[in-house]
Amino acid sequence: MLTIKQITDDKEGVIKGLEKKHFAGAREAIDAVLRQNDLRRETQGKLDTLLQAMNAKSKEIGALMREGKREEAEAAKAEVAAKKEESKKLDGIMSAAADEMKRILLTIPNVPYQEVPEGKDSNDNVVEKMGGSEKPLPQNPLPHWELAKKYGLIDFDLGVKISGAGFPVYTGKGARLQRALINFFLDEATKAGYREVQPPTVVNEDSGYGTGQLPDKEGQMYHCNLDDLYLIPTAEVPVTNIYRDVILSEDQLPIKNCAYTECFRREAGSYGKDVRGLNRLHEFSKIEIVRIDKPEHSAQSHQEMLDHVEGLLQKLELPYRILRLCGGDISFTAALCYDFEVYSEAQKRWLEVSSVSNFDTYQANRLQCRYRKGDKSIQLCHTLNGSALALPRIVAALLEDFQTPDGIKIPKALQPYMGTDMIK
Q: Residue 58: what pLDDT?
C-alpha cells in the first residue's frame, strides 16, 4: 500500500508511475485519497481544539463548585456534555475518512521503479540476459506429457479422476524427481544463508491483505468459505506475514527465509495448448526465498536473489533467459520484477519458472513491518521474494531437454538426490 508521504511528496511522480502500470483512473484515485486525507486532518484539528476546550471547561467546573457557584457549574457541565456529543460526531467523520482513504489505497498498485520499461504486456518485456545452451535431441522429440506417460512418471488422467484437471499425480521416479528437486533447491538456499521455515498452506484474511493478494480482483485464490481461510498461491504469503506488526532491530536485517510449500491457483480463464501437461496447474510445488531488508540495501539483496536463481538454472544445465518486466506486465504489488524462463526444446517455447521481485515499502506498509534505526527512529522495511524454483516447468524442461533414445538424463547436480544418472 502506498504511503501518504509518498503521495504528498511526489504526487505527479506517483501518478506517472501508476500510468506506466496502465492503472486506469490513476489521477482520480490519488485525488480521492488526498481529499480523504485532508478531511481527516482538518477534522483532527477541529477535534483537538474541541478537546482542549473541554478540558479547560472541566477544570472550570471544579473551581465553580468550590466557590459555591452551583448554577454556573451546572451550565458549564451542560456545555461540556454538548461538546462531548460534538466530539463523537467529529471522531466519526475522522474515522470514516480514514477508512475510506485506506479502502481506496488498497485498490491502488505499487509505483514501479524508473528502470521498469514502458510497455503494455509480455511482448514488451526486455531480455536482460540469456544463458545455457541448447541440447541435442533425438529426431521428433516428445513433449513432457508424452515422456511422462512413456516412463510412468506422471499420471494426468488419475489426477483428473481424484481432483480434476490441473492436479497431476506423480508416480515412481516422477515422484522421486519432485523430491530430488525440492531437496536440491532447499539445500542450495540453505548454503546461500536462507533459514528454512515450514509455514501453513492456508492463511487468514489479514495475511492475504498484508502481502497484497487481497482484495483478489482476478479471483485466483481458493477460498475456504466455512472458515474464511485461503489456500496460499505462494509461500511468499505466510512467510512474509511472519513479520506482520513486528518492529525489527536494524542489526537483524537483512532477514533471509526460504520455504517449500504446495501452491494453489485457480488459473481462471486459462485454456488451450499453453496449459497442457505441467505448463499450468492448480496445485504445484515451489521453493520460495523471502527477504526483509533496509531500503538502502534492498537493491543489493535483489541482485543477490537474481544471482541465486540464475545459479540454480546453471547447475541444472538448462537454457534460460532473464526478462525485466515492463509496466504493463509487472504485478500489482511489485516495484521491480525479473522473470526467469527456461527453454523447452520439444515445445519450442519459453516457460516461466521464477519471478524475483522488490516490493519496496508497499507490502511493509500493509503489514506494518518496520525496523528501528540506530537513531531510534522507526521506518518501514523493504520486502523481496522470488521462486527458487517452481517445479512444474522445471520438470517439463528437464524431461524434454534431457531426453535421449535410451531415457532421460539427470543433470550432474541432481544425480546425488536422484540416486541415478538416468531415468530409463
A: 82
C-alpha cell recorded at residue 334: 511489485
Burial group, residue 60, by CB count within 10 angstroms (0-12, 13-18, 19+)? middle
Q: Where do we find the cell 524508473?
A: 114
User: Contacts from 407-410 at CB under 8 Å and sequence distance 24+?
Assistant: 407/151, 408/147, 408/151
CA-nearest of 135, 68, 76 to 317 is: 135
Check if the beta carbon of residue 402 is closer than 8 Å to that of residue 410: yes
Strands 320-324 and 126-131: antiparallel
Residue 63 φ/ψ region, left for φ over 0, alpha for ψ in the -120 to 50 degree band, beta for the rest? alpha
Q: In terms of DSSP H, where are the helices of 116-172?
A: 144-150, 156-162
Pairing relation of β-strands 255-264 and 283-293? antiparallel
pLDDT for residue 71:
82
Q: Which helix (H) or strand (E) is 185 found in, with range?
A: helix 173-191
Nearest 5°: CA angle at 286, between 210 and 189? 90
Report how many helices (DSSP H) and strands (DSSP E) the chain contains, helices first: 13, 19
> Would you state the pLDDT for residue 81?
85
pLDDT value for 297? 97
Cα–Cα distance for residue pair 77/72, rounded to 1 Å: 9
CB contact at 8 A, 167 and 282: yes
Residue of 391, 193, 202 whose CA lies nearest to 287? 391
Neighbours of 63 (CB within 10 A): 12
Instruction: Mark the ranges of the chain whose per-residue pLDDT is less than 50.
Output: none
C-alpha cell at 80: 461540556
Q: Are 407 and 422 in contact (CB under 8 A)?
A: yes
